[in-house]
Structure formats: structure tokens, C-alpha cells
Amino acid sequence: MFGITIRRGVAGVFAAGALTGAAGALAVPSASAAPDCDAVGLNRAIAAVSAQTADYLASHPSANEAISNAGAQGGDAEATIRNYFVAHPTEWADLQRIASPLRTLRAQCDVDVAPTEIARLYDAMAS
């Protein structure tokens, strides 16, 4: 259980840095917004990016290991992850391409897609 919590936290830190650049919130636009800007569109985009990120990390074991173990040593997990990707810019660029639908959605719908808020939603649904 502790390992899962660490990985969730580290993944959230990684995703927050990679996808939003700062902490934010998951905002649900008004009903008059374009169809892709509603909760369905946001969740589909998040699901697609999550699945592609999982596939990418499965095929790049060193990146997966760096993210999975970043918080295990008790240091700054975000700095550990950042240092890994500074040393592996091609992998960073690959993950940025994977995340591009979220950046597009963020720009077109004027919403922040923040992993911490999404994690809170899933935690609430799992209770």
C-alpha cells in the first residue's frame, strides 16, 4: 500500500510538472462550452494520455524505474524526476508529445487539467 501511495504521489508530481507546469484545479466548463470541453471530453483526453503514458513507461523501463522510485529514498521526488529527464531529453520530448492533447484541451477549453484534483476525484469515488 505504501509503495502504491508513493508511486501515485510521484506520478502526480511528474504529471503536474509535465502537463501543467504548476498546481491548479480541474475546472468543469459551462454547459454551453464545446462538446470536448465537458466532463466527458476531459475524461477521455485524460484516459488516452494516461494509457499512452503507461505504454510508454512500460517500453522504457529506466524512465519507469526513475519515476517509480523517485520518492523512495526520502529526497525531493520532483527534483529526482526532473534530473532524470534533463539527462534524457528524448524521453522528455516523447512524453511531451503524448501529453499534447491535454495542453490543446487546456488552451481550447480554458481549463487546467491538474493530476492532484483528478486523483482526489478518483479517491472520493473509490471510498
UniProtKB/TrEMBL annotation:
Residues 1-33 form the signal peptide. Residues 35-110 form the Haemophore haem-binding domain. One of its GO terms (molecular function) is heme binding. Gene3D superfamilies: Haemophore, haem-binding domain (1.20.20.20). Keywords: Signal. InterPro entries: MHB (IPR032407), MHB_sf (IPR038378), TAT_signal (IPR006311). It comes from the Bacteria. This is Haemophore haem-binding domain-containing protein. It comes from Mycolicibacterium agri.
